[in-house]
């Protein structure tokens, strides 16, 4: 895993498409410097009350300003993030401000080493991650990690069975 040098903030604004004035359009805006980006897309989910769909705007923001992520109070952090994007086009700051502060996720931007090339075999990545986790668990237990046996190539002749014993199956 490689740290990309920025923090990712993710939120789900309760503003409807009409309130956000998104006109059904999704967008991603890139800033100049400071690894700043912002993207939003409208989303409809079944309403909890059962009265049709509930609209919201799913968004993410990135910046390499670590001071924002360091703020522990969620409301204060949300305000600082909104201020960071205040000069950007509408509805960027409004989407941030309308999102419940405790619901804004904060995480470091990272890239998996496999993401430097196109992913053609997702199963291989999942298997690699499973082995990394198994190695860590074995190390925690003070045990040596042993690679599991490689699966039989299904294009081959199949498994070989060897019986040891005589005609009466006595070993």
TrEMBL record:
<protein>
    <submittedName>
        <fullName>Uncharacterized protein</fullName>
    </submittedName>
</protein>
<feature type="region of interest" description="Disordered">
    <location>
        <begin position="134"/>
        <end position="158"/>
    </location>
</feature>
<feature type="compositionally biased region" description="Basic and acidic residues">
    <location>
        <begin position="134"/>
        <end position="156"/>
    </location>
</feature>
């Amino acid at each position: 895993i490689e740290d990309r040098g920025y923090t990712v903030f993710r939120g789900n604004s309760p503003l409807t498409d009409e309130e956000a004035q998104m006109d059904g359009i999704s967008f991603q805006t890139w800033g100049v410097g400071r690894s700043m980006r912002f993207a939003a897309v409208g989303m409809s989910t079944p309403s909890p009350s059962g009265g049709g769909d509930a609209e919201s705007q799913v968004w993410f923001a990135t910046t390499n300003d670590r001071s924002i992520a360091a703020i522990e109070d969620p409301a204060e952090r949300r305000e600082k993030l909104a201020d960071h994007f205040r000069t950007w086009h509408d509805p960027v700051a409004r989407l941030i401000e309308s999102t419940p502060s405790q619901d804004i996720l904060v995480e470091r931007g990272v890239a998996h080493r496999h993401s430097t090339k196109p992913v053609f075999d997702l199963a291989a990545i999942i298997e690699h991650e499973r082995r990394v986790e198994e190695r860590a668990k074995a190390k925690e237990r003070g045990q040596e990690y042993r690679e599991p046996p490689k699966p039989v190539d299904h294009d081959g002749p199949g498994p070989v069975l060897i019986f040891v014993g005589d005609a009466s199956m006595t070993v």
